[in-house]
Amino acid sequence: MASSQPYGDTPVGVIGNDDYGPAIAARLAACGYRVLYGGLPGSPAVTRGQRLEPASTPTDVAFECSLVLVAVDDTEAMRNLLVGTPDRMGMGAEMEPGSVIVDIGARTPRELQALLGLLGTRGVALVDAALIGGSDAAAEGRAKIMLGGYPDSVEIADKVLSLLGHVERTGPLGSAHAVAALMGYVEAAHAVARDEALALGRACGLTPEVLARMLSEASLARATNVTRIGRNADLARRIARDRGLSADIIDLAAEKQARQRSENR
Fold it and tell me: Which domains does the chain have, with CATH numbers?
């Protein structure tokens, strides 16, 4: 499937530090876009192709691209990427006014507003996006994508993100990451309830076969990215703290996971 590029032959930039970045870059290149990929520490290498070119640094991506998708969860790393460090210039200083950065990370609305404030003086827009379904889904164009931000910028980002799957526009900046966080919250609560139900069933003398048969598929763990669920659940807890609300079930899930890691050592 090919797509007309929103900026003529200007490449789309992708920056990442895990398997999401290369998956996104490969998918967009396969759909006919020129893609410049900047890999950070932790990112698998990408193979140079007719439409896909590895970049030496993220700054090179920012200099050449008017639309950049950034898959980096750590907020401090994202901030350094945008504004720079004593050793290198940030993306915000290299991108042309009117450019758009798509934040495919895990941030609270407050953190996103702070990042937007760092970019605003340059006239660079920021939207937030969350990919549900894992890197394989994105690579195959079947991910579910939440997208938030100002309408004009969202419109630009949607044209590219729609190649990764079905896009749902969630509202203002920060809304996409918030929705993903709430989904992670529900998944964390689901995992805790399932584990407790299985433990209680075993205590009652039920065999694993009976439990698997009697509990509906909806109550069993789904094949999904556990690491991504954990990140989103943690983001939900941070949002709750920002709003002065409770997220007790996530604390229970985190305690259970820590106990299991300790027992497995």
Answer: 12-173 (3.40.50.720), 178-264 (no CATH)
